[in-house]
Design goal:
single chain; 175 residues; Four Helix Bundle (Hemerythrin (Met), subunit A); 2 domains; 6 helices
Length: 175
């Protein structure tokens, strides 16, 4: 289970804004709430707890999102808040999806490629998990991206095979 917890001291005005954002998002069936003091992906929450202590000029907000699934969103990746294990689970899913499409001689969807390449870039920025393989891996990812943009199935498959090969070598060394 992946949980998100936020505890923040804010102004009373910001507390009012957070409640309004939550209310609007829930009523409009929106998936993401963004503001200066809050970022929350409601779709990832199976349970949401909100507690506020209000004082004269400030408030303390405690917000907890309980999730029944491992969830990686772009905001938390950009903030460097993704755990390696969670990242790898997300990569495994998109890797398998790409592989499945290529085996059927189909180009994978843009969103799967983008997700995989984004996760790959984050992974290779994390030290101590196979640093010596990262340059080679990044080059293979770049070739796959280029092949995808050209819609070159032959080059796409070759690049994916190279990524798979590097992955297998790295995992042997680190597992």
């Amino acid at each position: 289970m992946s949980n998100m917890k936020l505890e923040k001291k804010i102004t009373r005005r910001d507390a009012e804004k957070i409640l309004a954002l939550l209310s609007t998002a829930l009523n409009a069936d929106e998936a993401v709430i963004k503001s200066d003091s809050l970022y929350l992906d409601i779709d990832s929450c199976s349970k949401l707890k909100l507690a506020m202590k209000i004082k004269k000029s400030s408030a303390t907000v405690k917000l907890r999102c309980y999730s029944s699934k491992e969830h990686i969103d772009e905001h938390h990746m950009e903030q460097g808040e993704v755990k390696y294990k969670t990242l790898k689970k997300g990569m495994k899913k998109s890797f398998e999806e790409i592989e499945k499409h290529l085996e059927q001689d189909l180009m994978p969807p843009q969103e799967i490629i983008t997700k995989f390449l984004t996760h790959s870039a984050i992974m290779t920025a994390m030290p101590d998990y196979g640093d010596e393989y990262y340059n080679e891996y990044e080059k293979a990812c770049e070739i796959m991206k280029y092949a995808f943009e050209k819609a070159d199935m032959t080059e796409m498959k070759a690049a994916f095979r190279e990524i798979k090969n590097i992955k297998e070598i790295c995992h042997k060394a680190y597992k």
